[in-house]
Design a protein that fits this description.
By secondary structure, the chain is mainly beta. The protein is about 0% helix and about 45% strand. It is built from no helices and eleven strands. A hairpin with a 4-residue loop joins strand 7 and strand 8.
Length: about 130
């Protein structure tokens, strides 16, 4: 059972940057985070949850929603089994609770910037962009 924990949220001024982390554990023996597709989602107050971006397993690429493309980047560190969301040039409309999610099946790919299946979720981390 994969277990995901987000961190790195906080208050930042417009134009600033934050890096969110999604630490993953509970892999089968010998497995690492790159074998699983992982996505980031966010939910602003009063709005539905929306996809932000997704990184496919192994050598698959990463994909982003149009609203964040060119500003946000997803990467991963297999040594630490962590997936990152680097957010640059933040805007007030990026304010939301950010969640990471993983497809529990190894070697699957993203469907656009979403997961085909979001089997595992983190608890979320708050990002507030305000002056």
């Amino acid at each position: 059972q994969l277990h995901l924990v987000e961190s790195g949220g906080g208050l930042v001024q417009p134009g600033g940057s934050l890096r969110l982390s999604c630490a993953a554990s509970g892999f089968p023996s010998g497995s690492t985070v790159d074998r699983y597709a992982v996505a980031w989602y966010r939910q602003a107050p009063g709005k539905e949850r929306e996809g932000v971006g997704c990184i496919s397993s192994t050598k698959g690429g990463s994909y982003y929603a149009g609203s964040v493309k060119g500003r946000f980047t997803i990467s991963r560190d297999n040594a630490n089994n962590t997936v990152y969301l680097q957010m640059n040039n933040l805007k007030p409309e990026d304010t939301a609770v950010y969640y990471c999610a993983a497809d529990g099946r190894p070697y699957f790919y993203c469907i656009g910037y979403f997961l085909e299946r979001s089997d595992h979720w983190g608890q979320g981390t708050q990002v507030t962009v305000s002056s």
